[in-house]
Amino acid sequence: MIRIDRQPPADEVPPSRRRGGLAAIRGAGQDNPRSFFCRVCHRCENGLWVPAGWYLLERAPGGRSRHIRLGLYCSVTCLVRAGEMLQEGAAEHAARLGLPDEEQVRRERNRVTETAQTLLAGGMTVRQAADSLNVPTFTLKTWLKEAGIHLEPGSVPAHAAVPAGRNPVSVLNEQTQRGRIGTVTWETVVAGPAHAPSFTVTATALPAGKTGPVPATGTGPSKAAARTAAATALLAALGIG
């Protein structure tokens, strides 16, 4: 737990705790002046008490232990900058140790989620997909839920293949190999913010015996989900099921 205390102006402090316009946080008997140093802008003030308006950052270790003072900052700007410096330091530390940064973690999570959706659409259970990807089952369920994929126990996603238990993309490929349809083309459009993108995939095929192409569109929180939805819609449009 992190606690941030702002020292009040002198006129808001009880008379017994006022000392020359500075807010007191010291106990009785501590009458020696000291220096108060802002860790960001290096501003320094001397006095008996923490200057009014400054921010004291403390960490509570829990239990009856005393709070650990992490820093003293003279303004909100310095306090915000301190948070940025902590993030920069964490990134540098991760780089020195060869640990993945937040962006790498996000990309890996998206990759695992997309692969899991493909495996689930192919008939795997969540546990089987998690074992295949070396991810805890609970973690995979959480990631799928946050990606907007809601599963019933023992089921596969609602956009699963037709026929049941088959990957619709694989079914399209089989139909192409058998000569029932021409080569399927895919177009992908990404919209939305980077942390919550929305994918729209358009699948187009030329069925045997027809003069015009047949398009179908699918959307989803990942490219794999949108591709699966588009393949399902295309199979329905072609009357394959």
From TrEMBL:
SMART domains: DSRM
The UniProt record lists the keyword RNA-binding: yes
Residue ranges constituting the DRBM domain according to the UniProt record: 167-240
Top-level taxon of the source organism: Bacteria
Sorted UniProt keywords: RNA-binding
InterPro entries for the chain: dsRBD_dom
Short name of any one Pfam family annotated for the protein: dsrm
Keyword RNA-binding among record annotations: yes
Organism listed in the record: Planobispora longispora
Name used for this protein in its record: DRBM domain-containing protein
A single MF term (Gene Ontology): RNA binding
Lineage, highest ranks first: Bacteria, Bacillati, Actinomycetota, Actinomycetes, Streptosporangiales
